[in-house]
Amino acid sequence: MISLTNFLVLGAALFCTGLYIVMAKRNAIQVLIGIEMMLNAAILNLVAFGRFDKSANGGQIFALFAIVLAAATTAVALAIILNVYRRYKTIEPDKIDQLKD
Amino acid sequence: MTTPITYEETKMAYHALAAVVLPLLAFVVNCFISKNKAAGWVSTIAVLLGSCLSIIVFNHTFNGADIHVGGVWFTVGNTNVNYGILLNNLSTIMLLLVNLVALPVHIFSMAYMKHDQHYGKYFRYLSLFCFSMLALVIADNFVLLYGFWELVGFSSYLLIGFWHKKEVAVLANKKAFIVNRIGDIGLLSAILLLFNQYHTFDLQQLFGQGGLVQQAGNQTNVWQWVAFAGIFFAVCAKSAQFPLHTWLPDAMEGPTSVSALIHAATMVAAGIFLLGRVYPFFNTTELDILAVSGCFTAFMAATIALTQNDLKRILAFSTISQLGFMVMAMGINAYASSLFHLITHAFFKCLLFLSAGVVIHEMQHIKDDNKLDIDPQNILYMGGLRKILPVTFIATLIGGLALVGLPLTSGYLSKDGILIQAFEWSDTKGGAAIIVPLFMLVTSWLTAFYMARLIFKVFFGNCRLDAVSGIKFHNSDRDWRYWLPLIVLSICCLFPVFSLNPVLYEQSWIYKLFSPSNFLERMNIYHTIIPVGLNIISVVVIYYAYAIYIRDKKFKPFPQHNKMFALSHNQWYFNSVYNSLFVKPVIVLGNALFWTDRTVLDGFIGLLKKITLTLANIAAAFDKYIIDGLLHLLTQIVSYIGNFIRSFQTGKVQFYLASMLAIVVAWFIFKTLI
């Protein structure tokens, strides 16, 4: 029997990995991947907690919503990235710093 | 004026006023035609008309009542200061005399100054001078009198320094001006003191018959003495009396015709005139002081005149000496005789100076024509001029005899009068007072000697320029403008002008002018013995001079290196004594003050400057480092904070995320810890 703690530890590890990727990667696509990993960590936690709600399976429902929202968000983010690339000829977030001044 | 004025009096006053204003008019006209040769005629005609007018005025007022017209000039507080004319015997005879002496001088000047490039300017000054002297004479109050007194001093300053390119002339006119300033201060103080005491400037109210001064009686308080000292100094300065006589010999640097005018009836006579005006003011002790001072001046100047070599300087010292006679005569109460001598002296001194002018003119021509290097005024270069300048010779002879006081001349009448009265005065005084007339006697003999020396040196013997062969002469006195004044003045030096009796001064009409004329009764032996003794010894002295200078030149009684000779030749060292007594200390004081100013005052100011500078520097540093530093610190802090905050705004998404994360983590740690 895999305990809840193991799921939560895995979720935390996934979240941290995603967070690291978001902060460290130079490519916007990879950042997007990092965000997906953090979302997945959250979804994993929802599913893990969902086991304790046998009657309504609220955790799983939340997870489905989150997956749908993540897909939509990713689509929007991809559209932004494409537009950014068109404008700046790069998708490295480091080099897109014209908001600064 | 309190008493009503008759028509005749008004007319005379206007005549007198016209006589005074004419030279002023000439002065104004000459200001516009200064380049024109007519200037001389303008001035001369003004004086000629003035002379005619003053003769009329004199004839009318002769022994008549005083004419006093005028009005209020201005009012200060309750004091009215008047303008006006006071014509009494003293002022009318002075008016006449000044005009009569100025006239020949003017005529003479036209020839004498003919080649001067400032001919017009000369006559301008001369007219101004005549105007101020004439106005001084008829002024009726002290304010006007003082004003014209100053103007006389100023115009004489202009005339003495007429040749202003000659440095000695400039020094001489400065000296005359400054010495006269000392006297002016005295006169001003005396006027103010008199005003303080009597509350009026009016001369007639003060000194007239039964005037305020007479009512006050014989004053001996301290202010009387101070006022006397003031008047004394004024008289000393104007009339060149000891101790303020040193300017007059130096004033010989002016044109000779000017010297003639200044010495005769005008400038130097002003002092005697002032004495005459304020005469009732003096108490007996003050009169004695005047007598002694006049006596000393007369004697001193006569001894100096013995050894001078400059023709004009001899005459200048002679003037000082004769003015000493007049002052002494005032002092011994011989008021009328003093003025009588003033009048006779005016004519013969004017004559002598004009003759000297002819001689100097001749010598200047000889010098220029023969290209000699001589001083045209030095009598040692002259000699034998009587054949070349016959008119001048006769004129000088008459003037000289009058100056010595030999019978048949006017000088005899006035001078012997003074001497007789001096002896009578010393009788009434008794004791040591006899010194005064004795010294005056000696002075008279000295006069005889120096005049004889002058005439013998200049006109007799052989020409001392004989060494120069083929000398050319100019014959200066052929010009009528030279000989006419000389002849007219010569006639005025003879006795008939003043008295029908050539030997008895008491019968002169002058004495009728000034009442009371005392010492006129022939009450004792003095009236006979003094003129006789005086003149016999004078003739002996003249013969002695003849023996020394003409007959036997080997006869040299005067060692030229004697102390007495040096004393006389150096004018009793008055100039050097004054120089070391007054001039040098003043210069030393001036230098000391200059040093004090430079080192002490400037040093103190320099110190102040340094202190201020240091303080300012400290303040500047405080401002720069503390105040500005605080502000800069503030701005630094603000900008640091700003930069710090700004550093978060990198525009990098990942950095924002990281900082957000850091803050959230920090927040959690913070919450956990507390």
Shape of chain B: elongated
Spell the H/E element sequence of chain B: HHEEHHHHHHHHHHHHHHHHHHHHHH
Proportion of residues in β-strands of chain B: under 5%
Oligomer type: heterodimer
Poorly predicted sequence stretches spanning 5 or more consecutive residues of chain B? none
What is the helix tally of chain A?
3
Structural class by helix and strand composition of chain B: mainly alpha
Helix count of chain B equals: 24
Please bin the fraction of helical residues of chain A: over 70%
The average pLDDT of chain B is: 82
Taking all Cα atoms into account, the compactness measure Rg of chain A is: 17 Å
Poorly predicted runs of 5 or more residues of chain A: none
Specify Rg of chain B, calculated over alpha carbons.
38 Å
First CA to last CA of chain B: what distance?
120 Å
Annotation, overall tally of beta strands of chain B? 2
Instruction: Give the H and E element order of chain A.
Output: HHH
Q: Could you give a short account of the major beta sheet of chain A?
A: none
Could you say which overall geometry of chain A the principal axes of the C-alpha atoms support?
elongated
Largest sheet of chain B: 2 strands, antiparallel
Largest interface: A-B, 13 and 9 residues
GO molecular function, one term (chain A): quinone binding
Enzyme class (chain A): translocase
Subunit structure (chain A): NDH-1 is composed of 14 different subunits. Subunits NuoA, H, J, K, L, M, N constitute the membrane sector of the complex.
EC number (chain A): 7.1.1.-
Give an overview of the whole structure.
The complex is a heterodimer of chains A (101) and B (674). With 101 residues, chain A is mainly α. Chain A has a domain at 27-89. Chain A is 74% helix and 0% strand. Chain A has helices spanning 4-24, 28-50, 58-88. In chain A, α1 runs antiparallel to α2 and α2 runs antiparallel to α3 (58-88). The N and C termini of chain A lie far apart (56 Å). The mean pLDDT of chain A is 85. In chain B, α15 packs across α17. The relative contact order of chain B is 0.07. Chain B has a two-stranded antiparallel sheet. Chain B has 674 residues and is mainly α. The interface between A and B is small, with 13 and 9 residues. Chain A: This is NADH-quinone oxidoreductase subunit K. Chain A: GO terms for molecular function: NADH dehydrogenase (quinone) (non-electrogenic) activity; quinone binding.
